[in-house]
Design goal:
73 residues, two-stranded antiparallel sheet, single chain, 5 strands, alpha+beta, 3-stranded antiparallel sheet, 3 helices
Length: 73
C-alpha cells in the first residue's frame, strides 16, 4: 500500500513478462503463436523472455512452428 498526502492507494504490480509466459504453460504445451495471443506479448519479447528463462522452458522446433512447454523440476 502506498500512502500519498494522507490518502492510501492500493498498488497492484503487473506480472512480469516471465510470469505472464509461464502461467499459460503450466496448463500444457503451446505453440508460440498461441502463447503470444494468450500473453499479449510481442514475438521479440517472447523470444527474449524465453532466452532469459533458460532451462525452465523447453522449445521444440518443428517445420515452421515452435512449441513451448515448461521443463520438469
Amino acid at each position: 500500500m502506498v500512502f500519498l498526502s494522507g490518502m492510501s492507494k492500493s498498488v497492484h504490480a503487473m506480472p512480469s513478462s516471465a510470469e505472464r509466459i509461464l502461467g499459460p504453460l503450466a496448463s500444457g504445451p503451446l505453440i508460440a503463436s498461441q502463447l503470444i495471443w494468450k500473453t499479449e506479448v510481442s514475438q521479440p519479447t517472447l523470444l527474449h523472455v524465453m532466452a532469459e528463462l533458460g532451462e525452465r522452458v523447453v522449445r521444440i522446433e518443428a517445420a515452421r512452428s515452435i512449441q513451448c512447454l515448461t521443463a520438469r523440476p
